[in-house]
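User: I'll paste a sequence; please echo it back and then give the predicted structure.

Assistant: Echoing your sequence first, then the prediction.
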Amino acid sequence: MPAEAPRTRVVAVIAERTAARVRSEAERAAPLCDLLEIRLDHLEGTPSPAALFPGLPRPAIATCRRAAEGGLWLAGEEDRRLLLEESVAAGASFVDFEAGAGPAPGRGRAAILRSLHLPEGSAEPPAEALRRLEAEEGDLLKLVLPAGDAPAALEALRLLRERPPGARPLAAFGAGPRGAVTRLLQPVVGGALLYAAPRPGREAVPGMPSLPELEKVYGVRSLRTSTAFYGLLGRTLLQSVSPAMVNGALRAAGRDAVYLPVPCLDGDRTAALLLELGAAGLAFTAPFKAIPLWMASLTEAVAAHGVAANTLFRRGGIFVAANTDGPAARRLAREALGTLEGKVALVLGSGGTARAVAAALKEERCRVHLLGRNTDKTAAAAATTGALAGRPGERTVDLLVNATPVGMWPSAPRDPAEDLAPGIRARIRLDAVYNPRDTAFLAGPAEVRIRGVEMLAGQAVDQLRLFGVPRPDGEAMLRTADAELAGRERRIVLLGMRGAGKTVVGEALAAVTGRRLLDTDRLVEERAGSPVASLFAEGGEEAFRALEREAVARALRPTGTVVALGGGAVVGIAGFPPGTLAVWLRARVETLAERIRGSGRPSLRGKPPEEEVEELLREREPIYRSLAGFVLDTDDLRPAEAAAEVLSALGSP
């Protein structure tokens, strides 16, 4: 048997402004990583390697990137070389130097990591880029490909798969969010290094996983080149709970396997490349549920009749397409009704999920009606599944299924039955939407309500069986999905004085987590059609406050959001809905006054900024203190730094 490749080392990228912050993040990262990369180009002022490297808890890589290399270094090349030499002398174990930048400093005293970052839009073939990198001196090599979409990033993994035995260690992956899967797969394809952020919110570049995510979700330090891998393809998967749920089940079953999200635009090419790279199976979300049908040699019945498949798996030497959504919904409905034969079901929607549910129910002689907004699509879906198009004659049905995306996070709560089927009553309501877990559809009249998270876990159980896991623990998978969704549903409310940074910190939180930012000042402006300054000038503070109260009520309705409250919006609020983390962003009076001067916003009381801030703070501070679950001083923090602290308090991204 060929020897197992050396274990991939996990690198925590420490990109901080000060030596104190570098040390703090390094200590936080050390238990979950093998190496620390110290990004010297992110430090303010003149970096002092002697204050950075001695005594670090893990061996360190000294890195200083120019702007052309994706970094922040603006000084000259000679200064950079001198800084790296000083870093080696101060204790850096590795020095990272870009290809083409001349001889690397530190030879003989530190290992050389030679990097090549191809710029966005580069037409250089990956194999050519690797040959160019191979011509450079260095103990380790790193190649980063531009990745506007997943297929471009996956070419990096092909290079690793084809790498000859005895070649220098190489890390090769794609940049950006659609290259994230290539980072995660480094241990499986023999990559030398896996780069990660020390914690959520401290990502040096987009698409970089965090150390807690690598440990908790993917168990990355147990992955090897012998590990089987599965991919989940979708347009955007930032909020998917499937990786945590499925990976937990794989570990519980003792499987040496990992399940990875693969966000992509070109699902066809991405799926084909993943299979070429050895994927053991693939899962698909909308809009890619037609892809398995043409890739498979055999299609199971529900997928064929529903013209939608969410699973592609290997059976012997062929690929089989299947749909596990429909059977999961059917099983849940049967458990609630006892039997489906002769029962009447109304399925809302005409897309892939609706067709799969209808096809699965029809297999048990259930009378199924499909009802969608587009009559032509509904008629076509009914024809393929054997269902009836349109409303049933009965006003009460046995089963009402929401197979539309209406009510899905991050949209405001909404019941599609009120629009599509007003007046219809149901014994059972089953929602395919699982985020949020408790939807407006499920709040409608019914004897039994089946949550979308139960269907999600049920279809994942069936999918794992198809992937070769005989007895997945469905109850454990449901608990995992419930816990993950509970974290994602938590609402973050930012409160504090004007100038404390609520909007900019909210924007940073939204960017990192995928949450929707609801800024009450912006909501007021949208509703009124005027900027806040004009509203104050024309209608006075009372008119503004009336609009603000309505905006606050709207902002606090959806779950899984970031809400930035206006400074005075807290007046009259006794508390927040369950599942809310209220964060008081606090700053010194002089900081607030300075920020207010540059904001262009009018004075509320016609006083100088410092005097007005002190007066308002005396009135509002008791309210902020009573409402807040976490207090954060923002005077010396950048928005991204403050966002990371909020995420740490939240305990989950």
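The domain at 490-650 is CATH 3.40.50.300 (Rossmann fold). The chain has four domains: 9-226, 227-323+452-488, 326-450, 490-650.
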